[in-house]
Every structure is written in C-alpha cells, then in structure tokens.
Amino acid sequence: MIDYVMDFLSVLFYTLRDVLPILLLIIFFQVVVLKKAIPHLKKVILGGVYVVIGLALFLMGLEKALFPLGKIMASQLTEPAFIGSFYDGASNWMSYYWIYIFAALIGFATTIAEPSLIAVAIKANEVSAGTISQKGLRFTVAIGVAFALALGTFRIVTGTPLFIYIMTGYIIVIIQTIFAPKRLIALAYDSGGVTTSTVTVPIVAALGLGLSSAVPGRNPAIDGFGLIAFASLFPIVAVLGYAQFMELKIRFSKKIKKENDAI
Q1: pTM higher than 0.85
Q2: Nearest to 114 by CA among 188, 233, 195, 59
Q3: Helices and strands, number each (H, E), in the chain
Q4: Long-range pairs of 91-98 with CB within 8 A, sequence gap ≥ 24
Q5: Is the pLDDT of residue 86 over 60?
C-alpha cells in the first residue's frame, strides 16, 4: 500500500510539472496580454486541481492496470496450447485468428466508449439538425477501428512492413475523398483523430506491445507500435464509405420515386 502511495505521489509531481507551464501561459495571456481578471477564480483553481489529480490517477491506472493487462491478454492468447486447441495444424498466421477476433472486439468496445468520439457525434448531430445520427456515426467509426485493429494485429503476427498498409489505406482515403459528399469529408477526418484518445490508446498500445512480445520473432520496439496508426486511418475510410453509401442510397430512392411518379 505504501509503495502505491509513493508511486502516486511521484506521478502527481510529474503531472503537476507538465501541466504547470500550460496554466502559467493561460494566466499570463489573461492577466498581462488581455489585462482582464480571471472570472470565477475559485472554480478555475478547483478545476485545475481536479485536472491534475485526474491526470495523475489516469497515468497511474495505465502503468498499474491497462499496460500489464494488455500484455497478459496477448501472452495468454498466443500460448501454443491455447492456439493448438482451436486450430490444430493450421498455418502460422492463421493459427492466431483468435487474436484478430479479440483485437476487433476490443477496438469496437473501446471506440464506442471513447468520450472524444461521443462529443464529436453530439456536435455533428446538432449542426446537421439531426441528419447525422449520433449512434450511426459512433457505430461506423467503431467498425472502422475494429477492422483496423484486426488488420494491425495480423501485421504484427506476419511481420509485414507497416508502410505497406498505411500507404494503401491513404490511397483509398484520397480516392474516397474525391468522390465522397463534400459536407462529410471534414467530419470523416476528425473521426479518425478522435478515436486515438483516452480510452482507446492505452489499451491498443498495451495490446500491440504485449502481442509483439509474445509472438516469436517479433520485436516490441519495431513491431509493437503502429496499431494506433491503424486506429486513426481506417475510421476515415469507414465514415467516407458510409457517406458514399448513403449518397447512393438517396440518389437511388429519388430515382425510384421519379419513375413511380412518371407512371
């Protein structure tokens, strides 16, 4: 217990050290540049204390829970006895199919719970007057992340170069951008960014590092990273694809209606 308290105090100190320059910069511009008093000073101070404590607890949780959990999950799922019981005699990369399924489920679940994505979905629903569904956007992005993590874990298992997947993905995004509805392009690009936030990143990073440590012949420093890039890229593909599908659906519905009216 004493060790955990000391670890937390250490993390709290480093968190305060990192946050303090930001707070000083904001105060400097408010008081010196804008020459205005800080409104609701007590609430601002209390909020700053909450931020520092919350970040310290979050970092502590990463170190003590999520990163070890990701490593344990990856090592257990890659045990020869576990793999052989499900896919005895399969080729090497196929024998890890439970890893791909697990990664997809983890990606979907963490993305659905991602606070930054929820915030973007709410704002997108507001500015579009309900045209863009909150649930529809969140599920589309989550499906994109699920596919991304399944593909990313496949890359780690096979040891293929990361740039091949990323280059191919962005070529697809460029082509989609040309033909997708212009009003949804910016939203699609933002959807890719908000997935790599507080909930998704720690678990995805832990999964990638744990998997690369457990798979024979892989180096965590070389193969362990890159999953977050997948999680940023493929939601863009998913949202642009969804936008193109809905555009075609609307055009097809209008065409059918026009033909029926003509009859």
Answers
A1: no
A2: 195
A3: 12, 0
A4: 92/157, 93/154, 93/157, 93/158, 96/153, 96/154, 96/157, 96/215
A5: no
One-letter identity of residue 139? F
Question: Which residue carries 């659905």 as its tokens?
Answer: 112
Domain ranges of the chain: 1-63, 78-262
Q: Cβ distance 12 to 23 under 8 Å? A: no
160 conformational bin, left if phi > 0, alpha if psi -120 to 50, beta if neither: beta
3-state secondary structure of 217: coil
Q: Are 209 and 70 in contact (CB under 8 A)?
A: yes
The predicted-structure confidence for 211-221, as pLDDT tens digits, reads as follows 888 787 888 88
Q: Is residue 227 within 8 Å of 111, Cβ to Cβ?
A: no
Strand locations in 92-227 (E): none
Q: Which amino acid is at 86?
A: F
* Terminal-residue alpha carbon distance, the chain: 79
CA separation for the pair 3, 64 (Å, rounded): 12
